[in-house]
């Protein structure tokens, strides 16, 4: 009984007695057809064949197929897009699905499927066998749900978790999560490597795991750090503080060395019974504090020498303050004699174009924070306007009361010139990166484009495309490596793994795989000493650019990379192809050329080499870079 009504069992499930038996079949069919989920019925007809014999209305509405397009067809049509079957992600699932049908058992899985218009969706399939009275299975019921948004959310959450875990592990700040069980001490749940190095004297890769489950006492963390953390956890658990972390600065002995630590502690997910989990951080500021002390000392020295410095009194209200001291650099900047400047109002430096609100802003900032920073026009003794930067800070007595203010004036004319130089240097650096990108990733992408064309042709011909796909994967990986190299200023060559020679050999092999040309590397004289990695890097890029031009523009079928000696102090890098040669002007007589030729010339000049272009008698082009030996490491 439920709610005063008797429920009766039937083959269709449980029905209320208020529903006549003759109405139940029609009502059940209506419910199934009105459901906002895809429901289908398939029939096992032959080995591996289970065509659909029923789909509900929502199945057609969601997939976009008409009933006559899908009935009496296997449901695998959902794995096709633009007439081609998409194998990715479904191979294992299809095998499991076939096995479950053969074994007549329930299966649940998520498939990568496509609507009629090609829209991809994640399909969560529940497939259940319908057992006949004699134990045989002829029909299977499928319930399918679009879980695209759910799976994408899960993917984003997993990516976010991976990112957070990576950040946690890579953080230079000691991070730890601890938990208190009952009235016992707090024990570590998670510790990053920086915290392990703080807690353990001889921390190795497994040190973080060694800290898990152990308390501060177990780890012999000395005072004052252990005392402060335990007190902080007690204070946080008592609810005496809000959500803001507790912080302090400690002078702490760490493995026999005195360190300056900035420590914080906060609750993690506090429940109704108070905080049981806590997070603490400890940042080693020893070096920072030392640098800060040095910076303060250096600033004082600069203020007393080259930096124009004024000392003014603490009378901030108008018309004050007054200048009580001006160093020689300040006197030279503004041109007033010392006897006129000392004792004069600070507003003496104002002029017709000085911002009239500037003194008020300075007074307000100094009253509030004791510091001020800004820019304004001042006027020298001749009435010439000068754009200067102001830094004003309070000079306090032992009780913290400002007695004077130190004012430093920086002539911005020198800064503007410096900014121009920085912008120029930035432009040069951008040009270098552009050359590297063009000589590296751009060439690989060009090869990738060719390989994709090959892949398309092989696929259209029904050939095995595994090798071409592997080539694409390798090129993409190589491009990613080169991008990282550009970002971090790395070289594409490893001196410990064969240097230039091995790099050229790999370049030839990869080019053979991703282009229609046969590329080979030759070293007829044996190892060629190229000890400077910068030289090796430039030579590699020259070869890469020349090889790419030979294949793309010269339509070469065979390209040879040759590294050979040319006497005791010189070597030659030659790129020889059998293509159609250079079109238009001779590159030897064209100092401009395209960006590729310009980059090659730049690199040759950078290694004190000479670059020349020769037309082969048999056709094709020979590009030769002659360069002096540098170092004693074999290329």
Explain this structure to me?
The chain is of the alpha+beta class and 635 residues long. 39% of the residues lie in helices and 26% in strands. It is built from 17 helices and 24 strands. The strands form six sheets. Strands 4-3-9-8-7 form a five-stranded antiparallel sheet, with helices on both faces. It has a five-stranded antiparallel sheet with strand order 11-10-14-13-12, with helices on both faces. Strand 20, helix 16 and strand 21 form a beta-alpha-beta unit. The longest helix is centred in the C-terminal third of the chain and has 49 residues. It is extended and about 115 Å long. The C terminus is likely disordered.
In short:
With 635 residues, the protein is an alpha+beta fold. Helix content is 39%, strand content 26%. The longest helix has 49 residues, at 412-460.
Summing up helix and strand content along with how strands pair, one would put the structural category as alpha+beta
Instruction: Report the sheet with the most strands, covering strand number, pairing sense and barrel closure.
Output: 5 strands, antiparallel
Strands of the biggest beta sheet: in what spatial order?
4-3-9-8-7
Kindly report the oligomeric state of this protein.
single chain
Task: Give the uncertain stretches in residue-range form.
Answer: 4-10, 487-491, 631-635
Radius of gyration: 39 Å
General shape: extended
Helix segment tally? 17
* Overall pLDDT score: 82
Total beta-strand segments: 24
Helix-residue proportion? 25-40%
> Strand percentage, roughly?
25-35%
Distance between the termini: 89 Å
């Amino acid at each position: 009984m439920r709610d005063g009504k008797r429920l009766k069992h039937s083959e269709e499930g449980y029905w209320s007695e208020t529903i006549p038996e003759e109405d139940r079949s029609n009502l059940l069919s209506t419910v199934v057809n009105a459901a906002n989920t895809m429901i289908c019925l398939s029939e096992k007809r032959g080995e591996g064949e289970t065509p659909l014999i029923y789909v509900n209305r929502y199945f057609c509405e969601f997939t976009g197929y008409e009933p006559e397009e899908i009935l009496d067809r296997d449901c695998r049509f959902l794995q096709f897009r633009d007439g081609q079957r998409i194998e990715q992600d479904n191979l294992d699932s299809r095998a499991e699905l076939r096995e479950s049908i053969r074994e007549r058992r329930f299966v649940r899985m998520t498939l990568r499927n496509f609507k009629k218009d090609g829209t991809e969706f994640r399909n969560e399939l529940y497939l259940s066998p319908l057992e006949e009275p004699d134990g045989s299975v002829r029909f299977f019921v499928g319930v399918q749900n679009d879980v695209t948004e759910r799976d994408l959310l899960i993917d984003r959450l997993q990516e976010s978790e991976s990112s957070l875990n990576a950040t946690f592990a890579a953080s230079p700040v000691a991070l730890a999560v601890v938990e208190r069980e009952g009235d016992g001490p707090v024990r570590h749940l998670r510790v990053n490597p920086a915290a392990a190095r703080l807690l353990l004297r001889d921390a190795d890769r497994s040190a973080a795991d060694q800290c898990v489950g152990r308390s501060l006492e177990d780890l012999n963390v000395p005072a004052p750090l252990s005392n402060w953390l335990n007190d902080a956890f007690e204070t946080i658990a008592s609810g005496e503080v809000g959500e803001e972390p507790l912080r302090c600065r400690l002078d702490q002995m760490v493995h026999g060395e005195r360190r300056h630590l900035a420590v914080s502690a906060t609750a993690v997910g506090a429940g109704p019974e108070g905080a049981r989990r806590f997070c603490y951080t400890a940042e080693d500021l020893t070096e920072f504090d030392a640098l800060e002390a040095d910076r303060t000392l250096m600033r004082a020295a600069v203020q007393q020498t080259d930096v124009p410095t004024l000392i003014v009194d603490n009378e901030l209200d108008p018309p004050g303050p007054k200048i009580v001291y001006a160093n020689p650099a300040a006197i030279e900047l503004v041109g007033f004699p010392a006897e006129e400047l000392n004792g004069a109002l600070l507003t003496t430096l104002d002029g017709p174009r000085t911002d009239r609100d500037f003194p008020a802003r300075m007074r307000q900032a100094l009253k509030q924070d004791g510091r001020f920073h800004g820019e304004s026009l001042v006027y020298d003794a001749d009435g010439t306007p000068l754009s200067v930067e102001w830094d004003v800070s309070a000079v306090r007595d032992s009780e913290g009361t400002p007695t004077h203010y130190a004012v430093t004036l920086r002539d911005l004319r020198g800064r503007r010139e410096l900014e121009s130089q920085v912008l120029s240097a930035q432009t040069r650096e951008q040009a270098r990166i552009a050359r590297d990108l063009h000589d590296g990733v751009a060439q690989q992408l060009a090869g990738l484009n060719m390989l994709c064309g090959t892949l398309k042709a092989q696929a259209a011909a029904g050939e095995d495309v595994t090798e071409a796909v592997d080539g694409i994967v390798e090129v993409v990986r190589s491009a990613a490596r080169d991008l990282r190299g550009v970002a971090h200023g790395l070289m594409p060559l490893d001196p410990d793994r064969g240097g230039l020679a091995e790099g050229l050999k790999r370049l030839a092999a990869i080019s053979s795989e991703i282009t229609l040309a046969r590329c080979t590397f030759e070293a007829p004289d044996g190892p060629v000493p190229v000890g400077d990695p910068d030289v090796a890097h430039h030579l590699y890029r020259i070869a890469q650019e020349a090889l790419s031009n030979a294949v793309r523009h010269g339509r070469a079928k065979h390209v040879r990379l040759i590294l050979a000696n040319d006497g005791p102090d010189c070597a030659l890098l030659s790129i020889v192809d059998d293509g159609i040669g250079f079109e238009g002007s001779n590159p030897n007589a064209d100092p401009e050329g395209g960006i590729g030729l310009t980059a090659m010339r730049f690199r040759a000049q950078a290694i004190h080499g000479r670059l020349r272009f020769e037309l082969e008698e048999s056709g094709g082009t020979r590009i030769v870079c002659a360069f002096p030996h540098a170092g004693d490491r074999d290329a």
